[in-house]
Amino acid sequence: MERLSLFELNETIKKNLEQHLEPSYWVIAEIGEMRTHSSGHCYLELVEKEDDKIIAKMRATIWAYTYRNLASWFENITGQPLKKGLKVLSLITVQFHELYGLSLNIKDIDANFTLGERARRRQEVIAQLKEDGIYDLNQQLSLPTVTQRVAVISSPSAAGFGDFMDQLKQNSKGYDFRIDLFKAIMQGENASESIINALLAIAQQEDAYDVVIIIRGGGSQIDLDCFDNYDLAAHVAQFPLPVLTGIGHDRDETITDLVAHTKLKTPTAVAEFLISGMVAFEDRIDMIFSRLYQLARSGINTNDQQLARFEHRLSSASNRLLERQHYHLQLLWKQLHAGANNGMNINRKKIETIEKSLELLNPENILKRGYSITTVNGSKIVPEKLKVGDNIKTYTLDQIIKSEVEQISPKK
Amino acid sequence: MSENNLSYSESLKKLEALLEQLENGDLDIDLLSTKVKEATGLIRFCKEKLRNTEAELEQFLDKPED
Mind listing the pLDDT tens digit for each residue in B9-61? Predict the structure, then answer.
């Protein structure tokens, strides 16, 4: 058999590859490692996994002039940079160099594939959360009427955290919030784990808080993948306190947003939300207060009116009683008058009758009518004592006649 | 005052009874002044109690704004 030098062998391999391979292939692979050189070239390791085990691996390069355009274009479309862990569809040429061996050169990357890939992964995570029965657990918690004790998970240097604090402190009603910051890394590879650790720290003192808030500073719209992470979403969903998010991005909600109790667009919006809850509560208190006031007032008024009615009844009843007695007295007075008059009249009449009788009896009147009166010895005649020869005086109206009794005989 | 130890509602009850007696008109006139005096005393007492209650209410209710 012919003996070849190593170079000759490599040359043969190179020739064979060039003869038998297509100029380029569209290849699906995961970025296993990736670093950019100061020259601007990008060196990667592409891998394929099956059940988390690497079953294929190959070095790859993106030359600087391609990488510059490709990297920014990819980030524009997908909202995230090319990085380790991403599944990409790339246009690849296979290269073999006698000295450097086999490597792949990436000419292009289909960003839409990665987008679709991410959407698929998101759906998987959502489906898993639902299957585990935890997807809407946090949403079933009821938000306290007043959320004043707030645990915030954020990066202290994030602009969003500053916005949040400013908004809360400058609330026009002067509400006082107790804010405790639990520091966490809010982007990059370690973000999920860091946020989960913050959640666990809060859970240790869950009674001290009404609500948990996850906020991320505005600015860069990239690198939200950590919020699509299953572990983080599962922790948020199962957290014993309501979790509010203000992750601050324009693209579709992250899965953390979906499982949170309430999702708000920005940290400022979260602050507004807390304040508006307080305002609503205070309005309700004010309403109850003024209702209480009205009820108390109307209770007093009712009693005032009752007392006024009583006063009126009292004065009119006693006046009536007095009037009745007065009337009664008047009646008695009239009766007394009438009675007295009557008595007087009767007596007057009696006296008149007597007067008339007396007049009839007056001897002078008898004499006037032609009668006379006879006396014997100055006294009225007593028939038994009268005897013949007695001197008698007879009085007429205007004469006195003296005579002597001649005879006394009884009337027949 | 005779209504010293009465509550507001007891006073009202007593007032009502007094008024009924007066309104029925079967009251001895000798008692009228005594009874009316008693009734006005009760009304005064109730009013005073009502004013006090009102003042107390004002103290902790009269600031619905603020």
Answer: 899 899 899 888 888 877 788 888 888 899 899 999 988 988 888 888 878 76
> What is the C-alpha to C-alpha distance for residues B53 and B56, in angstroms, rounded to an integer?
5
Query: Alpha-carbon distance B49 to B7, whole Å?
Result: 9
Over residues A118-166, the pLDDT tens digits come to 888 889 999 999 999 999 999 999 998 889 999 999 998 888 898 899 9
Residue ranges making up the domain that contains A208? 146-280
- Count CB pairs under 8 A between chains A and B: 61
A313 and B23 within 8 Å at the Cβ level: the answer is yes
Q: Which residue has the tokens 């205070």?
A: A282
Nearest CA in chain B to A313: B19
In this structure, the answer to whether residues A166 and A100 fall within a common structural domain is no
Q: How far is B40 from chain A (nearest CA, A)?
A: 7
In this structure, are A269 and A151 located in the same domain? yes
- Domain check: are A178 and A273 in the same one? yes
Same domain, residue pair A28 and A151 = no
A235 vs A196: CA distance, rounded Å? 7
Same domain, A251 and A200: yes
Our count of domains for chain A comes to 3
Q: Which residues pair with A181 in a beta bridge?
A: A152
Task: Note the pLDDT tens digit of each residue in A316-363.
Answer: 988 888 888 899 889 999 998 998 899 889 999 999 999 998 888 888
